Amino acid sequence: MKRVFEFVDNVTSTGKPLLLGFPDTGLAGSIAVSYMVEQLRPEEKGYVDSAELPPIVPVRRGYPKELIRIYESSNFLTILSELPIPPMLIRDFSEALVDWVVDKKLGWVGCLTGVAEPRRLEIDTPKVFILSSELKRAEELAKFLDAEVFQEGFITGVHAEILRQGLRRDVEVNILLAQAHLNYPDPGAAAQLLTRLPKLVNEHVDVKPLLESEENIRIQLRDLMRRTAEAMVQKSREMELPPVYR
């Protein structure tokens, strides 16, 4: 069956982990991956194509870019998306992604994202939670990364479907969730995800500039946040969960 999404790349390495951060709660994962690419300058190795993507061409430093780009460094691969995956296409995208992971023989998938925290304004340092396709692995990572195992609740959106496909295909998928604002960009949450990078993939980025430019980032990403909010209405259910689920 022909998929809606096609991975066009020249990735040849095997065994490396894949880090993902699609626009989601507080844009935490999206900001983290964008900043990581900016700081580490991994090599651009391809893109994800689909006739269903909108006719938009992002321009970065004078260069036209693909909407969903694949990067590779010496220690990991990452996919940077300039827009949220439309809800009706999440299933197809996730299946195509896991097919690609299996075909490329990648090590494991790490999803960087946020979890809505209504008291976020009162929190100086957001907590990071771990959810994995294997509970034992989640417990190991939580201890190793100074995080907590995500115990109860719901995960929605593209990262949830990637996890589901990983479970069905026996592909290791780990989700790192930082407490984040639901309705506007949260560089502070992204910074907490990035502080785990050295132990996660043996890479380090200085998050101080990210935190210092927090307000500018929020202004720059207002339109992406609006698009993301429209594409993830179901995320608002996290706000309605009783405290035991957080």
UniProtKB/TrEMBL annotation:
InterPro entries per UniProt: Proteasome_assmbl_chaperone_2 (IPR019151), PSMG2_sf (IPR038389)
Record-linked Gene3D superfamilies: PAC-like subunit
GO-annotated cellular components: proteasome complex
Pfam family, one: PAC2
Coiled coil start-end: none
Domain of life where this protein originates: Archaea
Keyword terms, alphabetized: Proteasome
Protein name: Proteasome assembly chaperone family protein
